[in-house]
Specification:
It contains six helices and five strands. By secondary structure, the protein is of the alpha/beta class. Helix 1 packs across helix 4.
Length: about 300
């Protein structure tokens, strides 16, 4: 058994680690509400635009639109979205494992986030294009940091979607799939594969044709369809990026909660050992004193 001073040092060290873990947990949990509301609002906005596009599709034949049909000469692309930071359990590795099931020798890989880049490099996977530096490091307050992180993710998502759309319209990409950590609940985040391009609306024509009212469009249906489709795809990718950050924050909070519980258990055990050591030392001293007095 360790001596009294060693046990006290262990307890102080574990207490310091526990405080650090709690700080990380607090930072992560403080941003969850913001990103959850942004995911919800963006999803509602995307769904509204999708409904308008469905209504427009009744009057405008979109089957030959370049973003709605696969390019015959392009290559298949897989976009892997992770974050820049760790401490999220095995979340990023699960995303990579899902990606490995879709990747073959002819697939182009776009890696988003430092963790995606590092883990794919560990798997010896050749990466076509990388995007990183998603997180900020300095801010005055946690609320300010959350807002800046949200704006950073929006800006990055616009850059990435613009790059993908540009390559797709140039017919360099044929089929684009996105793998990201989907937010299912506050306890479940799982890798999900989404078909990004060509985009599929899953339009129910009978339901739309039977809808009441015929909308009036200005300047014309085709121009509105074109603009809304590009905005819709841009917003859709932004939603995936923001949802990735939300899943990261929740996974990190859960991981820190588990680490805090383990640290508390270790501290408790160390304190029990410390008390036992103190009692043992006291008993040994009493026995030594009794032995000396008996000799006298």
């Amino acid at each position: 058994m360790k001596n009294y001073l060693q046990l006290k040092e262990d307890i102080n060290g574990l207490s310091s680690v526990s405080n650090t873990i709690k700080a990380v947990e607090k930072i992560a949990s403080s941003s969850i509400h913001l990103f959850k509301s942004k995911v919800t609002n963006t999803s509602n906005y995307v769904n509204t635009i999708e409904y308008i596009l469905q209504r427009l599709s009744v009057f405008y034949d979109n089957k030959n639109h370049i973003l709605l049909k696969p390019n015959q000469n392009g290559q298949n692309v897989v976009v892997v979205i992770c974050g820049d930071r760790g401490l999220v359990g095995g979340l990023w590795q699960k995303v990579i494992n899902q990606a490995l099931e879709l990747i073959d020798k002819d697939t182009l890989i776009i890696a988003v986030g430092e963790k995606a880049i590092n883990l794919l490099n560990e798997e010896k996977i050749q990466i076509y294009k990388t995007f990183s530096n998603l997180d900020i490091t300095k801010s005055n307050t946690e609320q300010e940091k959350s807002l800046i992180e949200y704006e950073t993710y929006l800006e990055k998502s616009k850059v990435i979607s613009k790059f993908i759309l540009g390559k797709y319209t140039q017919e360099m990409f044929s089929n684009v799939k996105v793998i990201y950590p989907q937010f299912v609940s506050y306890t479940v985040q799982q890798p999900s594969v989404m078909q990004f391009l060509p985009f599929n609306f899953n339009i129910d024509q009978n339901q739309i044709k039977n809808a009441y009212g015929i909308p009036i469009y200005e300047p014309n249906k085709q121009q509105i369809f074109e603009k809304l489709l590009n905005k819709y795809i841009d917003l859709y990718f932004s939603k995936l990026m923001i949802e990735t950050k939300l899943s990261e924050l929740i996974a990190k909070t859960l991981e820190m909660e588990n680490a805090t519980a383990k640290a508390k258990e270790l501290i408790k055990q160390k304190r029990i050992n410390l008390i036992r050591k103190k009692h043992l030392d006291i008993t040994e001293k009493q026995l030594a004193n009794f032995s000396v007095s008996k000799r006298l």
